[in-house]
Amino acid sequence: MRRRVFKIILPVLLIGAVVGISTAWAFNNIRYSYQQTANQEIMAIIGAAVTSDDEFQLISALRQNSPDQVMAGSNLLKKYGYLPNDQIADSASRLLHQSILIISLAITIMIIAVVVYFVYLDWRRNRQIAELVEYIQGLNNRIYELHLEENSEDELSILSNELYKIMVLLREAADNQHHARQQLETALADISHQLRTPLTSMQVMVDNIYDDSKMPAAVRQDFLRSISRQVESMSSLVMTLLNLAKFDNGSIRLQQLPVEAGELLEEVRQKLEILADLRGVEIMFAGDLQAKVRIDRRWQVEALTNIVKNCLEHSPEGSKVTITVTSSPLFLRLKIQDHGEGIAVQDLRHIFERFYKAKNSAAGSVGIGLAFAKTIIEADNGQISVKSQEGKGTEFTVTYFR
Questions:
Q1: Residue 172 CB: number of other CB atoms within 10 A?
Q2: What are the φ and ψ backbone dihedral angles of 401, each rounded to 5 degrees?
Q3: Which fold has domain 180-248?
């Protein structure tokens, strides 16, 4: 604080000293000039009085102020020991002193005003710095108060604005982190439930097989098939979570190679053939099936399988799931449409969020299939969107940009 005050007052004092010296020098020159002018007038008066007896001639001579009259007056004053160049009239001297006093007082007031102004600026700057320090301490204590009382163009105000922006971002990040933590807790609870239920069922069936040596072969085969399906379901869930984590940390590198749309969709249909037969739903293709696009075939089959599987699970028996291919020099677009129950408006904007379960989700759904599909498609320079109407069906649009 003392160093800052010293840095402010010292320049002001130096400026005041320069102004004072310059003023004194200027007034000294003014005084000398005024003295010369006043004495010349006095000498002219005396010279005119000596050389003229007529009042009219005296006034005329004063107006002319001729060098001869000035010389005559000067010689007369010197004759009687009066040195006109060394002093001036008392009234003129008093006037000059008063002028100097008034101007000096004005300069002093100006200097004091400048000092007070700079001291105020220093106090204001220190207060702003203290507020910034309080801001930062609040951030360390996770206090995100969003208020900005002053806004100007100085450096500290700009810094305060930037800190304000940072606090907004930190608050949003904290809120998002809290929301994500809640989602993760819910997701872990759902996953735990999804794993615990089949594990319990498998344990019961294994115990029955182990304890009942006389169990009929048909019942034993049913138990084994059920155990196999549940193991496959849990394995699929665990692999999906593992692959999702790999995409998140960037450990998966996609290999983009030319793929024909018809071949890609046929592979998806083969993977879902059994489910489609069980649901009584037909998967149909339309459009430019010979169109090609550079994508990672393996992972895009995985993504499209999740999307079509979702359509199959929500389609009524006897309906169709249609995949239409549209090609252009800029993109290849797939429209996957079902005629099922549709998605509620409140669920539509959350449909691609991880572990989100809509009100009409399929039994056993964890809520990661569509989120996983979106992650894969976007990683392969693609885009996915959805539109739906309850009772009329849902349409997913997948666009691969060339």
A1: 11
A2: -80, 140
A3: Helix Hairpins (1.10.287)
